[in-house]
Amino acid sequence: MPIDPRGIAGLGARDCGHPVLSGPLLDLDARLDRAFLRLSARWNAAEYRFPPFIRAEHLDRLDYFRSFPHLATFPVALASEASNLRRFAETARGDAAEGVALADVAPIHHVITPAACYHAYVELEGRRLEGPVYLTTRATCCRREAHYELLERQWAFSMREIVCIGSESDVTAFLAEATARIDAWVERLDLGVAWQTAADPFFDPRRNPKYLYQKLEPVKHELVFDGRLAIGSTNFHRSYFGEAFRIRCAGEPAHSGCVAFGIERWIAAFLQRFGASATRWPELEPLDG
């Protein structure tokens, strides 16, 4: 059932599913993120703050535009010629039913970040690793959707990720331990979640061999609230990113995996599980097992 912001302290609503948070809900956002950061400290993960854009050439190496064209959001700027800018300034109307009519646009070389972990592989491009590397970052990610729901499905949303890059055994051990620690934590919270195998939302999946591969050998597992809402996931990439960005470990293409948390969806789960009163929310003890 969609969340109704009326009567919920600290929650407002804008279009495209975007929430406005203040008061107790903004505090919950911060406390959830601190819990996920505490989990990342188990591996001494270095925290990064990356730019909001990623170069299109980096996503092209991942076949992103063929696999996920429906999700991509591009930062668009007008071509800088004075005549083009003048034509736009004289004709553009922000209240037009069909949206703002753009004049000629400048060449597009970037994409607004669609997943927080992508920047980690760009950061380590060409590296020869002596052992596993652990990173964590929080990003505002953008993915276009067919429809939007407040806190649950947004054009722009907050994602905290913990990433491991190393040997295959390094990554599988990381994912197994992270899963076990998350399981113990959500059981204490009594949040009402369960793991489910999943596949990425490919465009035209029946024609994409990656989709079939994920169905045959699941490498993505989602932490699902109430049987319907994925609030987190674990992802085993094998050597896909290591090969794309020439990252090597022990003489082989590096493997990678990540744990991801959708912050707004966790807030939605808290509201629906425990109610709108902050006094009924469980204490967020450290997520460190």
Looking at this protein, list some descriptive labels.
289 residues, alpha+beta, seven-stranded mixed β-sheet
Descriptive report:
By secondary structure, this protein is an alpha+beta fold. The chain has helices at residues 23-41, 56-61, 64-67, 82-91, 118-123, 168-189, 209-216, 240-244, 263-274, and strands spanning 11-13, 19-21, 46-48, 53-55, 110-112, 128-129, 133-142, 156-166, 193-198, 220-225, 229-238, 248-249, 252-253, 255-262. The protein has one domain: BirA Bifunctional Protein, domain 2 (2-Layer Sandwich). Strands 3-7-8-14-11-10-9 form a 7-stranded mixed sheet. It has a 3-stranded mixed sheet with strand order 6-12-13, with no helix packed on it. α1 packs across α9.
Written as H for each helix and E for each strand, in order along the chain, the element string is EEHEEHHHEHEEEHEHEEHEEEH
Oligomer: single chain
Report strand order across the widest sheet.
3-7-8-14-11-10-9
Using only CA atoms, what is the Rg? 20 Å
Relative strand content: 15-25%
Distance between the termini: 32 Å
Fraction of helical residues: 25-40%
CATH-assigned fold name: BirA Bifunctional Protein, domain 2
**So, the CATH homologous superfamily?**
Bira Bifunctional Protein, Domain 2
